[in-house]
């Protein structure tokens, strides 16, 4: 459903976000200023005792300085009430006394159809749950008891039983007035090829209802009671409600548990999830009959920044882990990662918990390994590197894997870690010599710079170590393609620090900007926290004084025109807007070029060529953009731009020969 222009703005203006949030939190009145709409409370999204959750009624936004959750009244309602966007809009519209706009007829028809299918699924869940308690379900109950599930767990996960009858469910639903075509469309029954009456898809199986993030029944899973059944586990087919590659078992409860601080554990099947939840690990999910998909991976990252992939320690489990590694490599970004908990002895989580209790599972989770460890294990395990050719083959395979990481910063960190592991494997000494009879005597800098290895000529003196003052400069702090970003970020932050009155004006750009240096990230966060605090600069100095001091000591920052002219705020505003636009344009160009380059297999087609040319034109437009050329400000702004561009084009961070 589409909303008319201005509807959401009017809704946000009518609704007080402090009233919406106030239903879920207890305000800290010592820290809050109710008259100004400046409210503070302990964060409802993570466990804490201090009031780090800030609500600004005037701006209509909330932000947590602990877990960095942020948004408006709609996003808060979606996160806390577990509702979709349109449902959140409808709830707030009712509170504000606003009438929802008329729905698109076709969209309404599709939504109504989905509502009907959901109702059919709920009736099926009730039927199968009832069957579990009958005489026909005695064997299923005995199996569930042998698996150690408590009655509370059975009720919590709504387990049921499908009798071994051809039309048991079909007849029961038809008797309730449900049309046969709806039963088939929901995936509960199938039509035979001969055109006869539909028959039940699940027969002689324990039933596991599958619900979406909002708790709606969208499909079923079934485990066969007959050990000779063709498929031990069976999922419902793809339907208007159910896309198994975009769904996770136990999605809603896991999301709630992770919001309270529990880890997100990704395991293989229904029983693993149920066993983990019963043992106290509520943040457990599982893919539905498929290997983990890209869409499921993004779902996991929306629940938790670092899911733990807990797979069986057998050969199949290791292979599954490696498939996840290959899937995740191109998708990694700062703050979004994976860890892998390989269970011992080929056990699954259910078996491990039965053998050693929750403590044994917690120990495995505590020892979860980062993804780079599995990548290294795959390329080195069981191999001997006793020749230059074999070591070169290892270098090539690792370089190929790392090159698939799109995020430049993460790619460099992976290169550095692989460099360390390679030195450990080949026994290099600190001076670059060999140990243990293996190795090349070279560090693996090629992973980071993608340059060939170079040896120092025999008898040549080692290069002089850089002076401390040189090592501390921003030009050395960043490497390779990150330097242009680093230079521009430093100048942007220096302008804001020199003219702090501009920080509230450029708050949204600063909040969405991605920084290549943790020090820049800390300084930007300190600036955002200082907004609305009266004297901004003292607050910044208190939170990030060391980072600010180091920044303003850099020569190329000190000599920037808007920093030198600390009394000319109008000039600084124009320079700042231009540099922010150029930073955004540069990132957009690199993202577009990187995406297009992946499509280059052999000769580039016309589509890719067009995309590259458009990206280049966008950059040229950004470089030509001028905000205002009145008086002599245009010349100074041009001087700042030329100064930065000269540093970037001249690659002054690279060592010159001679």
From TrEMBL:
GO terms for cellular component: cytoplasm; DNA-directed RNA polymerase complex; primosome complex. Residues 262-344 form the Toprim domain. It holds the Pfam family Zn_ribbon_DnaG. GO terms for biological process: DNA replication, synthesis of primer. InterPro entries: DNA_primase_core_N_sf, DNA_primase_DnaG, DNA_primase_Znf_CHC2, DnaG_bac, DNAG_N, DnaG_primase, TOPRIM_DnaG_bac, TOPRIM_dom. Keywords: DNA replication, DNA-binding, DNA-directed RNA polymerase, Magnesium, Metal-binding, Nucleotidyltransferase, Primosome, Transcription, Transferase, Zinc, Zinc-finger. This is DNA primase. It catalyses: ssDNA + n NTP = ssDNA/pppN(pN)n-1 hybrid + (n-1) diphosphate. It comes from the Bacteria. It is an enzyme of class 2 (transferase). PANTHER family: DNA PRIMASE. A zinc finger (CHC2-type) spans 43-67. GO terms for molecular function: DNA binding; DNA-directed RNA polymerase activity; zinc ion binding. SMART domains: TOPRIM, ZnF_CHCC. Residues 615-635 are annotated as: Disordered. Its cofactor is Zn(2+). It comes from Paenirhodobacter populi. Monomer. Interacts with DnaB. Binds 1 zinc ion per monomer. RNA polymerase that catalyzes the synthesis of short RNA molecules used as primers for DNA polymerase during DNA replication. Contains an N-terminal zinc-binding domain, a central core domain that contains the primase activity, and a C-terminal DnaB-binding domain. Belongs to the DnaG primase family. Its EC number is 2.7.7.101.
């Amino acid at each position: 459903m589409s909303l008319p222009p201005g509807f959401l703005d009017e809704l946000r203006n009518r609704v007080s976000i402090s009233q919406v949030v106030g239903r879920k939190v207890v305000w800290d009145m010592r820290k809050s200023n109710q008259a100004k709409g400046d409210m503070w409370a302990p964060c409802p999204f993570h466990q804490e005792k201090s009031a780090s959750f800030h609500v600004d009624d005037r701006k209509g936004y909330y932000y947590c300085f602990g877990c960095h959750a942020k948004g408006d009244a709609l996003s808060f309602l979606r996160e806390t009430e577990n509702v979709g966007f349109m449902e959140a809009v409808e709830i707030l519209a009712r509170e504000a006394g606003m009438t929802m706009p008329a729905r698109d007829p076709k969209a309404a028809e599709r939504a109504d159809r989905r509502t009907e299918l959901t109702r059919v699924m709920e009736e099926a869940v009730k039927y199968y749950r009832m069957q579990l308690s009958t005489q026909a379900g005695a064997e299923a109950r005995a199996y569930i008891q042998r698996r150690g599930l408590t009655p509370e767990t059975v009720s919590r996960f709504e387990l049921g039983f499908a009798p071994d009858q051809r039309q048991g469910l079909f007849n029961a639903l038809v008797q309730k007035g449900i049309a046969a075509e709806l039963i088939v469309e929901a995936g509960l029954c199938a039509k035979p090829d001969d055109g006869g009456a539909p028959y039940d898809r699940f027969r002689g199986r324990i039933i596991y209802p599958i619900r979406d993030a909002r708790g709606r029944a969208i499909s079923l899973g079934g485990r066969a009671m007959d050990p000779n059944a063709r498929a031990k586990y069976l999922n419902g087919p793809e339907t208007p409600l159910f896309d198994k590659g975009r769904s996770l078992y136990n999605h809603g409860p896991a999301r709630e548990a992770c919001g309270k601080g529990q880890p997100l554990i990704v395991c293989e099947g229904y029983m693993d999830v149920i066993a983990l939840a019963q043992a106290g690990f509520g943040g457990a999910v599982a893919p539905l009959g498929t290997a983990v998909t890209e869409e499921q991976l993004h779902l996991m990252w929306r629940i938790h920044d670092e899911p733990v992939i807990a797979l069986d320690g057998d050969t199949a489990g290791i292979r599954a882990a490696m498939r996840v590694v290959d899937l995740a490599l191109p998708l990694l970004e700062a703050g979004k990662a994976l860890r892998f908990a390989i269970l011992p002895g080929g056990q699954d989580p259910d078996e491990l918990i039965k053998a050693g209790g929750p403590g044994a599972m917690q120990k495995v989770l505590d020892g979860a390994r980062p993804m780079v460890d599995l990548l290294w294990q795959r390329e080195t395990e069981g191999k001997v590197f006793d020749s230059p050719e074999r070591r070169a083959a290892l270098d090539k395979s690792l370089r190929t894997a790392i090159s698939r990481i799109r995020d430049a910063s993460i790619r460099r960190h992976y290169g550095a870690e692989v460099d360390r592991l390679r030195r450990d494997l080949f026994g290099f000494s600190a001076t670059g010599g060999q140990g243990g009879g293996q190795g090349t005597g070279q560090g693996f800098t090629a992973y980071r710079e993608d340059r060939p290895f170079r040896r120092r000529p025999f008898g040549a003196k080692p290069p002089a170590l850089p002076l401390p003052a040189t090592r501390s400069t921003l030009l050395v702090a960043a490497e390779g393609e990150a330097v242009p970003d680093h230079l521009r970020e430093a100048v942007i932050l220096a302008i804001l620090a020199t003219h702090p009155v501009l920080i509230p004006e450029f708050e949204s750009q600063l909040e969405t900007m991605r920084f290549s240096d943790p020090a820049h990230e800390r300084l930007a966060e300190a600036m955002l926290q200082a907004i609305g605090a009266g004297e901004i600069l003292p607050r910044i100095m208190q939170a990030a004084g060391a980072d600010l001091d180091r920044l303003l000591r850099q020569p190329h920052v000190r000599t920037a025109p808007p920093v030198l002219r600390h009394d000319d705020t109008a000039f600084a505003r124009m320079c700042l807007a231009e540099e922010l636009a150029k930073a955004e344009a540069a990132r957009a160009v690199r993202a577009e070029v990187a995406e297009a380059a992946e499509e280059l297999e052999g000769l580039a087609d016309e589509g890719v060529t067009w995309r590259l040319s458009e990206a280049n034109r966008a950059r040229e437009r950004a470089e030509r953009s001028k905000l205002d050329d009145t008086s002599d400000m245009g010349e100074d702004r041009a001087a700042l731009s030329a100064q930065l561009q000269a540093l970037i084009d001249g690659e002054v961070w690279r060592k010159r020969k001679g």
